[in-house]
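Structure tokens please, single chain.
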Amino acid sequence: MNLPKFLLADNSSHPEDIFVLHTEYPRFLINLKDDEIEWFEDVSGENEQELANEMEKLIEAAGSFYDAEMEGYE
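Here you go.
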């Protein structure tokens, strides 16, 4: 199966939260409401500065993905 890079996720137990799932390495779930991230992979041992730079880009991309998806619903 060929998964998209990002997926929207929701949960009725958390109606105020906005979740985006990143399906490529490093896989994570971000709550765009507060930018809390749940990692699905152990990224310890990675170059910390390189990882920080990559995460900043991925968080921005997750937000852009969400904004584009919401525009499609309008």
